[in-house]
Amino acid sequence: AQSVSQHNHHVILSEAASLELGCNYSYGGTVNLFWYVQYPGQHLQLLLKYFSGDPLVKGIKGFEAEFIKSKFSFNLRKPSVQWSDTAEYFCAVNFGGGSQGNLIFGKGTKLSVKP
Amino acid sequence: KAGVTQTPRYLIKTRGQQVTLSCSPISGHRSVSWYQQTPGQGLQFLFEYFSETQRNKGNFPGRFSGRQFSNSRSEMNVSTLELGDSALYLCASSISGDTYEQYFGPGTRLTVT
Q1: Which residues of B touch A36 (CB under 8 A)?
Q2: What are the pLDDT digits (tens) for A80-96?
Q3: Residue numbers in B near A107 (CB within 8 A)
Q4: Dist. CA B51–CA B74, nearest whole Å
Q5: Above 90 in pLDDT, residue B101?
Q6: B32 to chain A: which residues are within 8 Å by CB?
Q7: How many helices (H) and strands (E) does chain A have?
Q8: Are residues B104 and A101, on separate chains, in Cβ contact within 8 Å?
Q9: Per-residue pLDDT reduced to its tens digit, B23-72
Q10: Is B31 on the interface with A (CB under 8 A)?
């Protein structure tokens, strides 16, 4: 079955620390990849997306992600986190590369940034 | 441009009842997807509608159903509610096409007692 795994349930960092959140998916075919963020009390927002082309994609608020096809991974990174990055982060995959509106989500990673 | 709106935002029902949730997509978006979010299972895909047709369905029992109207607004219905149906129900809209970038609404928090 198609699945998405996020390895860390809860990550705690101090401000200015670097962040990397892991995401792996199970399928070997064409995929569209997304990272969403859910700030406390707010709804899911798209951070960044990958459809094709350059495997290093940049999103909003200084986040970036790298698609490594051979590892079925799409890890999220940020060089220096801020307190305002405290949120829950979800990796999501659209298996088959589009045309069907079902995203498979990972279980999410809660990020707590200490000021 | 207004975002995805969902009504009601909160709902309390008792077991055995049925419930209808509503979603208005972003103007111009023709695809609407529904998801259930729970602490244990995370975000799970329910179904997707495009041009009033259900195009894709997740692994949920037949008690969960939906529909889409000609203006792209969508409703989902849950019949014979169970305690386990307590969840945040999210709606997402998309222009559709090959890239499938989805925009999410704030959700409807359903509590079944």
Answers
A1: 104
A2: 999 999 999 999 998 87
A3: 42
A4: 10
A5: no
A6: 101
A7: 0, 12
A8: no
A9: 999 999 999 999 999 998 999 999 999 989 998 888 999 999 999 999 99
A10: yes
User: Scanning the structure block, which residue is given the tokens 């989500």?
Assistant: A105
Quick one: which H or E segment has residue B32?
strand B31-38
B8 prior amide bond cis, ω within 30: yes
Q: Which of B61, B58, B39 is nearest to A2 (CA)?
A: B58
Give percent above pLDDT 70 in chain A.
95
- C-alpha A78, offset from chain centre: 11
Residues B23 and B106 sit within 8 Å (Cβ to Cβ): no
Spatial separation of the C-alpha atoms in residues A26 and A6, rounded to whole Å: 12
Chain A closest-CA separation from residue B79 CA (Å): 23
CB pair distance less than 8 Å for B42 and A97: no
A90 touches chain B (CB under 8 A): yes
Q: Tell me which amino acid residue A91 is.
A: C
How many angstroms separate the CA atoms of A32 and A56, rounded? Answer: 14
Instruction: Report which residue type is found at A26.
Output: S
CA dihedral B16, A105, A34, B67 (to 10 degrees): -30
Find the farthest-apart pair of alpha carbons in chain B and give their distance in angstroms, rounded.
41
Which residues touch B71 (CB under 8 Å, ≥6 apart)? none
Per-residue exposure over A75-108, b if at least 16 CB sit within 10 Å of its own CB, e if not: bbebeebeeebbbbbbbbbbbeebebbbbbbbbb
Please tell me which residue of chain A has the smallest CA distance to B57.
A102
